[in-house]
């Protein structure tokens, strides 16, 4: 359980899209500027506000296809901008890193559709250029439309996605942790030697999904491997998180349920030799706040007026494969896709099956019933965060802005001072690499007990 007086981690959850995943229709709110998704000025303002507020990171969610399940086409997703358009976060981060000095960036990238060689090269380069301010949200992706964009008829099965992800990680670690020894770069004009050739080794990976000779084309960057984030919730996803993630993202709101999930994942981490302190945790949270309770309620009402359930149903359809446009209220939901079902759809053996009406009821409200919401005066919000963290044991929260940039501004101006007063927020400007801020010992590199460390030159190669 978190000590109630140690600072928590805070990040901003964004997406290079008009209709961000957590708030699909709220770009229609008069104070939202996500229609400016293609403008670097908008993103500069977001990044600079986040940096000035001392947030730990700006997190970019991402998808690789349109939400085309609802009504049998992508029409509604395009009309409502549900996770559309989807610009490439890898293109935003170098620009934003150049406009900031301390803020870190977490990029979502898929092990199912990327190749580990080019990903290692991109992350290695970005880690250099940002002085180690980079994290990777490892996803296996859940949209069939993405599979069809990458030449596949359908998505890989859940277990196959994770098998590929595990091998992807092996290759990634071999390249970034193992192929260049610590002493490889000499960089001496007088000796006329850039790198000691004998210290840079091919990796000769020959696996089921990838064949990569190596070595990495980038020299070792400040963190080598970017800080690793992941959100596995299924048993297989938890196993993956326990093995690889330095920050696990919990898809739940109930603090007891989060505590139980965390305990399970940490137990799994221990079983693969990782001390539990090396596994940090965060959850998405929405915040509605104003100087008085009445004004906070007015903000909520304004959000509700700009919330449109159809956009949410488009989002739900893409996540789960369940097209509610085809279901009457009393019909139980049976069609499960192979996508994001491990927590979005409830019901099954021994439980009353969820009906279409249940889901519509849940989604009638902007808070969607499923989301972690802190609402009230800044002091109320700070107390709710404090209580939630104390019970859940979370190390921090990713703020999912209902209105962008309004929710970030509210957090920075109103809530941060309250959190600082309670010792829950570090007012000191953050410095150093992202990993150094996550690790208790302040190291820039993966812990020696990590899976990736097993691939370093001289280390016993882990059996994975
Ligand atoms: C906070 C959070 C952010 C996520 N961001 C993304 C994302 O940007 N792209 C994506 O494809 N999946 C995203 N996911 C989904 C996860 O990667 C994963 O598919 C999901 O948690 C289901 O876990 P499972 O694979 O164990 O079933 C996110 C999940 C959470 C909780």
Would you give an account of this structure?
The chain is α/β, with parallel strands linked by helices. The protein has a single domain (9-449), classed as Luciferase-like domain (TIM Barrel). It has helices at 40-52, 75-80, 89-99, 116-129, 144-149, 158-178, 235-244, 255-271, 293-305, 309-320, 356-362, 378-392, 406-421, 434-438; strands at 9-15, 57-61, 104-110, 134-139, 185-188, 193-195, 205-206, 211-212, 227-230, 247-250, 280-289, 373-376, 396-399. It has an eight-stranded parallel beta barrel with strand order 1-2-3-4-9-10-11-13, surrounded by eight helices. The chain has a two-stranded antiparallel sheet with strand order 5-6. Strands 7-8 form a two-stranded antiparallel ribbon. A hairpin with a 4-residue loop joins β7 (205-206) and β8. The longest helix has 21 residues, at 158-178. It is globular and about 70 Å long. Residues 61-63, 108, 137, 139-142, 231-234, 237, 249, 251, 284, 340, 342 line the site of flavin mononucleotide.
Structural class: alpha/beta
Distance from N terminus to C terminus (CA atoms, Å) equals 31 Å
CATH architectural arrangement: Alpha-Beta Barrel
What is the CATH topology descriptor?
TIM Barrel
CATH homologous superfamily designation: Luciferase-like domain
Domain count: 1
| Low-confidence parts | none
Helix content: 25-40%
Biggest sheet: strand arrangement:
1-2-3-4-9-10-11-13
Question: What small ligands are held by the chains?
Answer: flavin mononucleotide
Calculate Rg over CA atoms. 22 Å
Mean pLDDT: 94
Query: What is the helix/strand order?
Result: EHEHHEHEHHEEEEEHEHEHHHEHEHH
Q: Specify the biggest β-sheet.
A: 8 strands, parallel, barrel
CATH class: Alpha Beta
Q: What's the total count of β strands?
A: 13
DSSP strand (E) fraction? 5-15%
Question: If helices are DSSP runs of H or I spanning 4 or more residues, what is the number of helices?
Answer: 14
Shape estimate: globular
């Amino acid at each position: 359980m978190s000590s109630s007086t140690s600072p928590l981690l805070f990040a901003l959850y964004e997406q290079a899209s008009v209709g961000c995943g957590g708030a699909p229709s709220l770009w229609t709110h008069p104070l939202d500027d996500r229609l400016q998704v293609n403008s670097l000025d908008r993103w500069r303002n977001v990044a600079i506000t986040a940096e000035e507020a001392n947030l730990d990171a700006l997190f970019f969610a991402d998808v690789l296809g349109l939400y085309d399940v609802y009504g049998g086409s992508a029409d509604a997703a395009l009309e409502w901008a549900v996770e559309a358009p989807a610009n490439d976060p890898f293109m935003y981060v170098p620009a934003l890193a150049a406009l900031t000095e301390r803020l870190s960036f977490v990029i979502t990238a898929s092990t199912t559709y990327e190749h580990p060689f080019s990903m290692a090269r991109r992350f290695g380069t970005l880690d250099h250029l940002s002085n180690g301010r980079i994290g990777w949200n490892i996803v296996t992706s859940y949209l069939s439309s993405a599979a069809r964009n990458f030449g596949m008829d359908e998505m890989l099965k859940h277990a196959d996605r994770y098998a590929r992800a595990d091998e992807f990680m092996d290759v990634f670690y071999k390249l970034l942790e193992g192929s260049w020894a610590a002493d490889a770069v000499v960089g001496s004009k007088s000796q006329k030697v850039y790198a000691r050739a004998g210290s840079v080794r091919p990796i000769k990976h020959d696996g089921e999904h990838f064949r990569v000779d190596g070595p990495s084309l980038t020299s070792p960057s400040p963190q080598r491997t970017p800080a690793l984030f992941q959100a596995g919730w299924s048993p297989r996803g938890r196993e993956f998180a326990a093995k690889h993630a330095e920050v696990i993202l919990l898809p739940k709101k109930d603090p007891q349920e989060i505590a139980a999930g965390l305990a399970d994942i940490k137990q799994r981490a221990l079983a693969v030799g990782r001390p539990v302190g090396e596994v940090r945790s965060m959850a998405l949270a929405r915040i509605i706040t104003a100087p008085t309770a009445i004004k906070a309620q007015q903000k909520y009402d304004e959000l509700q007026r700009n919330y449109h359930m159809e956009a949410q149903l488009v989002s739900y359809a893409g996540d789960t494969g369940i097209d509610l446009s085809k279901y009457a209220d009393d019909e139980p939901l049976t069609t499960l896709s192979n996508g994001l079902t491990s927590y979005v759809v409830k019901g099954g053996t021994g439980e009353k099956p969820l009906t279409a009406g249940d889901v519509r009821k849940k989604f009638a409200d902007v808070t969607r019933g499923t989301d972690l919401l802190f609402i009230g005066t800044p002091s109320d919000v700070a107390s709710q965060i404090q209580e939630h963290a104390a019970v859940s044991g979370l190390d921090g929260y990713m703020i999912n802005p209902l209105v962008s940039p309004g929710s970030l501004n509210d957090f920075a101006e109103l809530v941060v001072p309250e959190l600082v007063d309670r010792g829950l927020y570090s007012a000191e400007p953050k410095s150093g690499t992202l990993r150094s801020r996550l690790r208790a010992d302040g190291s820039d590199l993966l812990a020696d007990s990590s899976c990736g460390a097993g691939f370093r030159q001289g280390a016993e190669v882990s059996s994975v």
